[in-house]
Amino acid sequence: MSSAAPRAEANVDLAAIRRNVALLSGAAARSGAATMAVVKAEGYGHGAVRVAGAALRAGASWLGVCTMAEALALREGGITAPILSWLDLPTDDYAPGVAAGVDLSVASVRQLAGVRRAAEDTGRTARIHLKIDTGLSRNGCAEADWPELVDAAAKAAADESVEVVAVWSHLAHADAPTHPTLDRQAARLDAAYRWATDAGLRPIRHLANSAATMTRPDLHYDLVRPGIAVYGLDPVGPPPSEFGLRPAMTFRTRVALVKRVTAGEGVSYGHEWTTREETRLALLPVGYADGVPRRLGSRPSGVGGMRVLLAGRVRPVVGRVCMDQLVVDCGPDDAGADPVAEGAPAVLFGPGEHGEPTAHDWAEALGTIHYEIVTGLRVGRVSRTVADSEPETGVS
Q: Quick check: is 269 catalytic?
């Protein structure tokens, strides 16, 4: 029995992932730092287990996730590399993570107590990374509470219930490499690190995210943590990336219906767009339930909406984006010269190499960031497929 083509798919190029990680880990290695590829949020929508495998083959030696559940899913997928989970609740049961050898971020004495209980329950030493808030005012131990946390961690390390692997933090303005807060945050991390070493601990340090990995080698310390750049999306500038990154995801569908419509007909809910002449419209079976933001529909003026690459040309989406479908204006038939046909592939966004829109273009139109675009596709409605555009020759 032959299987039908996906109604809509997010195709992930593993060769692009490997290329991006090789560039990032090469930059880190020149500073003497190792690389942690961040694969949280199901690998930013790209598929965590497969991205993790590609990243590890390309030079990463660590993986980063948000939750223990994400870390355990990687372990179940056969990933044995070090994994850091950094946003678990103080009331969580840390035993499964400790038992699976997952590194855990700790930002409070209460959280440390939960990790110590897990170590006792499993009979294993828990590996922890102490997180200091250096100026983002999100997760991380407050500077005033840091001495108490370090003291408690040193006592836990002395009885071998924990191993303090790292002291770490996260940057607020890394996408602006010369912003003064970067140096201020680094100084605060250095002070927190000295407090830990004065307490007899010997941790590593890590601070750099994607942008700092690419632009601030002085902040690489012992380990860098690229996230969005792994997926080829540049956090510093618009495409094409000066760093050489290649977007790994292409979002595409197929034409469900083509019809001729006379001049003066309204299109989609509310008739915010009306045909100015006889034209052909192509129906694409994707909408906001699939992750196409409703706000990408055309404005009443017909200007400013999203576009798609269809039959070799970039064409405008007209009318409102609906829950399950949107409409593309293909122009007049012109004596049958228009090649658009039912079943034809349409690219909603991709690397941009063939003129198709990019995730960055969507983000610019919406006033958001490309992180939100690639993580916003609804897997289940949208099939995630994998390609490999290049052999792995030369990739370690």
A: yes
